[in-house]
Every structure is written in C-alpha cells, then in structure tokens.
Amino acid sequence: MMERQPMDGASALNLFLVEDDARAAAAIQRGLEQEGFLVDAARDGQVALGMALGKTYDLLLLDVMLPGLDGFTLLAELRAQGLEVPAIFLTAREALPDRLRGLEAGGGDYLVKPFAFSELLLRIRNVLSRRAGGGRDRTFVLADLTVDPALRKVYRGGQRLDLSAQEYALLDLLIRNASHTVTRTRIAETLWDLAYDGDPNLVDAAVRRLRRKLDDPFPVHLLQTHRGVGYRLEAHHG
Predict the structure, then answer these.
(1) Which end of the chain is more exposed for a tag (fewer CB within 10 A), N or C?
(2) Residues of the chain scoring pLDDT < 50
C-alpha cells in the first residue's frame, strides 16, 4: 500500500491522543503517523495528565468520556498547571452545553464523532496554523477587532465587548473561517444540537445579537452578509 505524504511541516510535530476506545485510538494514531506526525497515546485521563505534564506536545486530541479524569477536567487541570498547548476535543457528546464547556475549558476546536479522518486533519491544520509562530501570535486581529482566545477576551476599537457564551462561540466559528463564508447550516450545527431545517430565522437572530455588539456601535462593519449563503468576517473594502 502506498503511504500518504506527510503534511507540510508535520514531520516534527508531536501529538498526544487520549482516547479510551482502543480500536478508534489505533486507527487515528495509524492515520496520523502516516501523515508524518509523532503520536503518543493514552486511554486513561489520570495517566494522560502525568504524560502531558512530563513531555512537550504540539497538540492534544482529547476524548471527553474517559476513565480517571474526563477530557474537560483533564484539560482544565493542564491549564491550571500553566500548560497552554492547543487541544481538540473528539467526542460523541454534541449538545451545545458540552461544546461550550469544551471552549470554556480551553479547547481550540470540538469535533463530534463519528468524523471523517480528512476532517480531523483539516481541524488539526486549522488549530496548528492559529498557533504558528509562538504564543504571542495566538491573538486574532482584524481591523480594530482583537480576540484573545486564551483569555476569551474580545476588544473592538479598544473597548472590551461583553459577549455571551453563544455569541463568543459564533465569533470563534467566524474567526476560524475568516475571509470565508460560513453557511447558515454550519452555524446552526455548531451552535445548536439540532438538524438545520432551512429556516434562517434562528441563525439570523444569533447573528443579529452578535452584530449589535460587534458592529453596530462602530463605523466599520466586519460581519458581512452573503445573501442566500451565510456570513463572513472581513473588513469591507470599497
């Protein structure tokens, strides 16, 4: 069988996979190693805590429902110990409160099982690209908008914006896809534990709430509407 070529810059990256399903862990680890990553694995949250504190990793891939410590608690413990390595949650728990808890625990992304391996690779690329260049470059800046994901603080024109958990989750989705249109379906699937039925009212209302705080008080509007498609975060030109 022909091996896949490693991802650009991936050969030196160390990933830590914490997954208690042995078959799933083996498949993910094998696929990532074929992509050129170095992968350590653990199946117990308490064991993983010691391993993560004892070695430097570029990215954590964390299941939520683990023996010992659940994934949320594991990451919170690591953050309390000063470990700022990025993390992606891989879990079957797709309800909005779980997604928000994952973000609040310091997760950079939240991938719901079952997922395609190609999507996992894309999520890994996105999270690692946001961290490229060191910790100081984690802050997202667009025009006069500044978002610090580590502290979950948002500023516009030097003013602190007080966003709800849902508003921040929507802004985070738009940031992760900056300069690309995010469809209403994608927004609905991210913010709510429901199948999108084509009614734009729910999504549009969420966007309006964010826009009131993000754009309305300021002369330059960053949250752009692409009619019939979705929304995009970009500085409008022309």
Answers:
(1) C
(2) 1-11, 133-137, 193-196, 237-238
| Eight-state DSSP code of residue 109 | E
Nearest Cα neighbor of 24 from 67, 50, 62, 56 is 62
Among 173, 176, 175, which residue's Cα sits nearest to residue 184?
173
**What is the tens place of the pLDDT at every residue in 72-130?**
899 989 988 888 888 998 887 766 666 666 666 666 677 888 888 888 887 887 777 76
Please give the model's pTM, rounded to 2 decimal places. 0.54
Q: Which domain holds residue 178?
A: 139-233
Which residue in this structure is represented by tokens 């993000």?
214
Q: What is the C-alpha to C-alpha distance for residues 219 and 216, in angstroms, rounded to an integer?
A: 8
Token pair of 175, please? 């940031």
Question: Residue type at 205?
Answer: A
What gap in Å lies between CA 112 and CA 14, rounded to an integer? 22
Single-letter code of the amino acid located at 27: A
| Whether residues 165 and 81 fall in one domain | no
86 three-class SS:
coil
